[in-house]
Specification:
Helices cover 37% and strands 24% of the residues. By secondary structure, it is of the alpha/beta class.
């Protein structure tokens, strides 16, 4: 029987890379997003007007049986400090994109993750410290970091032997990032395909995972390091 994974945010740049990697390796892949990923085995489509509870019911109800891995790479980026005109709106958007999706992924893990399975969420390297020029983004990602620590503790609601961690990239090499920062040093950006291959190695136990850890992803001169914190 084929192994199974749910990719939350499966139509984004990193999500597509993850879906492609697991499909290539003969896994059954469920993509969760607002738009379908035609490469996935199945799709769960979200509605933009969904509340957190409605989104949770839609996702949990759309997954049948138990899964080997759940990866949440949904999210986005918005800048702005406390004086920004759109401070409230952008902060609320960051919270919904990063925290709500991570909470739904965690709840799905409590219902559907197999014993010993993998739950990977997405934090951010800069959110380990203050982010005064992107407060809403940093606050939301820091909340994901805290969620990882909580889920790895006893009585968190997910399988006691499950492995939960978070990736903390600096900058991913995506078409959107290249368009927005055409003069940047791309040799310091992390390819999405490389992150996808690492997550596959975690899911198959080819690379050990320490539950509760945040994994810093730093690329320099086109070479990437992964450091658990």
């Amino acid at each position: 029987m084929a192994s199974t994974i749910v990719v939350y945010g499966g139509s984004g740049a990193l999500g597509r890379a993850i879906v492609s990697t697991f499909i290539k390796n003969k896994w059954n892949v469920t993509s969760v997003d607002f738009f379908a990923n035609q490469d996935a085995t199945t799709n769960i489509l979200l509605e933009k007007g969904d509340s957190l509870e409605e989104q949770g019911k839609r996702v949990v109800g759309g997954v049948s049986g138990h899964v080997d891995a759940i990866v949440c790479v949904a999210g986005g980026w918005a800048g702005g400090n406390a004086a920004s005109n759109d401070f409230f709106a952008s902060s609320e958007l960051m919270w919904k994109q990063s925290v709500h999706s991570s909470l739904v992924a965690a709840h799905l893990a409590s219902k559907s993750l197999k014993s010993g399975g993998l739950l990977t969420l997405t934090g951010a390297y800069p959110a380990q410290n203050g982010t005064p020029f992107m407060i809403g983004y940093g606050m939301a990602k820091a909340a994901v970091h805290q969620l990882v620590a909580s889920l790895a503790g006893p009585d968190s609601g997910i399988p006691s032997d499950a492995k939960v961690n978070a990736i903390l990239p600096v900058t991913l090499d995506t078409p959107m990032n290249r368009s927005g920062m055409p003069g940047a040093d791309f040799s310091s950006w992390t390819p999405c395909s490389e992150v996808a291959e690492t997550i596959f190695a975690w899911a198959t136990n080819a690379i050990p995972v320490t539950s509760g850890k945040l994994v810093e992803i730093v690329t320099k001169d086109s070479k990437t390091s992964y450091t658990e914190k």
